[in-house]
User: Fold these one by one.
Assistant:
Number 1:
Amino acid sequence: MILTEIPIINYLQRAVAAATETAYAGLILVVGRDADVGELTEETMRNWHSLHSVTREHFAFVCPDASGFAYQPCPGSEPRALATNGITVRGGSHKWNRPFWNARGIEPLHEGARVAGDRPFPKATGRRAITGTANELGAFLGLNEALIPCVAVLCLWEGKALILPTTSAFSLYPFLKGLAESFEETSRELATIRDQLADARWQLRQVEGPLARAVGHRRQALNNVMARWDKKIRRTCEELERSIDPEVVTRLEALRPALHNAFEAPSAALAAIEELSALAPWCTRLTHVGWRIRDGLGRERAAAGRLVAAEDELARVVTPLQQILANASEQHEQLKKAAMLSSHVIAVVPEFGLRTIRSNPKLNGPWPADVIQRRADSIVAQPLERRLA
């Protein structure tokens, strides 16, 4: 069971936008008022712990949090008070600056909500909270009044919604238990792949961290050595710039790039030094720089070699693990696409007086929606003479 700590529509918009990133296959909502769905809201409150247990990691049963005041958070700022149908948001923190409001993130259903295995408020308060969100949920899902009360199942990986009008035979816990049983084999396969993903990520972190830090240290060491070399070249150029000989200054401007590129092109740098030394034999720094270049810039090249070796070791160890992780991720995504939660819902609902799908293009919700007809609906739709026959 998940309690939204933000206005429920804001939460659902977030969940729909980031649906493919969550581990949950479906999101369950009770839409109705206490007057016309009293037994259902009562069952939700009474069997809270059982509903939480049966849905497990497969489905997110979302309820408004009715335990306090309501707030309307603004992106990039602290929440400000707003009375919104008994839904609470816990203020006094900077969590509104989290990526929940600005970008898609990991496990989006856990952003702006909290998992609650035990009912956190009295049953009457919880029923009023569900009733208070009926109009908002109906508008969000594009439901007309005739479809309320109902249970909405948002199939997150498929990007579609199933609307289950409630009947006297409908009971929430048996429905979710039947759905969990139907989905169990798929969920086991998904759990196995998730374990593989978690193991691959753990192994990758274990080996990548130390090796990446080693690469960082080697890169910093090379940067330090090259900075000292660049400083030596810069001071040599500054000494030459103080010359009163205009020819020295003119040639320095032309040959400066070659001096600064001595590490990559030592021959061109040596030629520039010989030319400048002939014009300014008094500049001892040129002589020292020339000695370093002829010596092969040993310290600099050694530091560069250590960096290359560290990078090669990182690639050698990490690349196979990254490939394993990529393969497992691809397999997980393929299995999610093939899961088809909607087919499991359709397989379970006949036990509760619901039988056929009626696509309803008139519903103006976030996703395409199918309405599961009550068994009585199909009888009423038959011609009168056929029913009398």
Number 2:
Amino acid sequence: MGGTADVDDLAAFARQHDATWMALLKKPSGNHWVIVDDLDEADLMTIRDPASLNGLGGGFGTRATMILTDS
């Protein structure tokens, strides 16, 4: 799957394919790629960012759980 996806389509795809994938987070400060490890039935995404908050080579990366929304 490439490009953008509707939230419902993305959720269905993620649940059918038990695989790690990349997602583009659109933030006010700019877009950022993260690795998505899981998307559960409650639309909670487990993500990780291999770069630290200090940038590449600056330490351990960040892990988080986010709610998938279409806004």
